[in-house]
Fold each of these.
Amino acid sequence: MTEKQARFLRAKMLGALMREARLEAGKSLKETASAIGTGSSTLSSYEHGRKSISLPELEILAYHFDVPLHHFLAPSADELEMEREINPEIMVTLRQRMIGAMLRRSRNEKDVSIRQFADQVDMPPSRVSAYERGERPIPIPDLESLLNALEIPMEEFMNKDGPVGEWHRDQRAFEQFTKFSPELRDFFDQPGNEPYLRIAARLSKLNLEDLESVLEAMKGLLA
């Protein structure tokens, strides 16, 4: 297979994955195209493999569908390890775009125009538009004003993925651990209790109906 044929096949496969993810997320072609700042015809070309989507567009698309980017890229183990290394410039630029997309989506969900939004936070519409497109960094005071207007807590816009997100999760987990009683911390520290902790972690992920079924089964075993 030539390089040209390989690229053609990859475009077809990527388009199929994009369409599948869009349908799974229950998003329309028009809504999805708007989310990445393009037209419906262009997105349709992406999904049918007639054109290839760019990485920034794919990143926003993955966020819009709430699907990991790796679902589309299928990186190797080496690439995954490399991704853990932080490139500040790239990370900041990407995060600006992501935050802008999140702002735009949140504003659209409330059916508020750019001008209405700008008036509400006393900012020029051009500045708000630039923020939503990720073209300029959003100072913390401005972001707080924007999120307050949308009634969204800052925590929802914080980085939850990648090395930085993992670090924040570890810090929060440690803070929670320090709040436990000495007896409970000692229980966690005992290697022999690991099976119980694993069971507890799995049970915490069950919905109420499944959890009730498990509890009923346990009652039957203990009876």
Amino acid sequence: MLHSRSEWRLPPTGPDTCFVGISFHHFRTTRRAIVRSSLAQAFSSDGEGFATRGEGVPVEPEQGRNAHLSEQQAFELAQNVLAEYELRTGGAPLRVVLHKTSYFDPAEQAGFAAALKDTPIVSMVTLVPSLFRLLRYGAYPPKVGTVCTVNSDRSFLFTSGFMPELGTYPGPHVPQPFEVRCLGVESAVAAAQDVLNLTRMNWNTADIRGKWPVSLSFARRVGGILDEYGDDDLTETSFRYFV
């Protein structure tokens, strides 16, 4: 069965939004040195996706698994996303939501804030798979979309779990929630709603159990392809080019 693109858009509520997933991947340069390259996978409110590659991030021994952009790199990456968004939609977004799986350090916060200073609403959202577990009465785990707030300052979102539409939980393991941390004027609960909506926007699969938002899951997939692409400039940025 074929679906039109309009069926894969977010609900038409709120301001025009650009969702941006930021990830890092490894590739070998022409000097055969391994670096981490930043990648932003962005989506407009109507589901149009595109990728923008940032500068290489040298791997430092003390860095561990969490790579971070410099202030200038964060600034340039956000500027590139805005330019590509305007090219595709004809206007600037009124809201930008940035997704990462590691915290936004002070340099990244400063760089993104400077680049997005003319955007009315900016949220920097960190999604961290958590060891937190929630039990409820009955035979099944919490429903998909459950948000649990602890002590008014920590929020956990279940993007997998019991699905009333199926009458069961279709997963093999105990559902693992994300801890949702949000920097900006919006609440973690509002950020969680965006994340949940974006888990259902993968039009390239028939899987009903999307765990990750497409902003991050597609960034990882595209990053894997770019591992083979090398350090040449991208000639095509549309997500369709990579699937």
Amino acid sequence: MSILSSVLVLALTTVNLDVVTVPLSNEIKIALTPGARSEIRREGTVTRIKIDIDRVAAPSTLGPAFNTYVVWAMSPEGILDNLGELEVKGGKGLFSATTRLTQFGLFITAEPHYMVDQPSSAVAYRSQIPETDVRRRTMPAEVGTYDYSQLKPVSSTGVHNYRSSRRCGAFSTNRFSECASGVGRPRGVGQPGSPVDILWPTAHEAIRWSQRAAATARGKR
């Protein structure tokens, strides 16, 4: 069953977060509850965002279909911007990105993949009282457009094969063939590095098209 046919549109719910005005050329610090920190600096027409989280639980703790975390910015008008995927290494969360927004709030949600166009209701972190004295106001963010409860989690075998195929890319051609065959990839298919270079962009493009189809379907309702 495809992702689109498994995802149901639900009534929206809301979560409150602080929307701040970023002063020009000044760095501000905002707490993302619970237990995360963000540093924001405006440089001309670009605002740089950095997030650090000391300990991050696996996304699956918020639901079996969740595989990653996505960072969102919300403007005072309620417009949501997917800023990208939170990088998790050794249980720590790291994130760095830019936005054209100068007034926004931040929150992080658990998602099935990082290319979602709307946030799930699994809000893990959200901007609260800034550590720096700046203009702010509390606003509701709409979340939970989709119900992911019917999505099946990625099997442990699939995750193992993907991670193993990435490790295979570091081997010589002969070792690569041996490694690839050991994780279920036919011998002689591609060269070292091809699982990521070929399969990963193709998977991303498939997700992009599914999101476009979902957006088009919503527009025709």
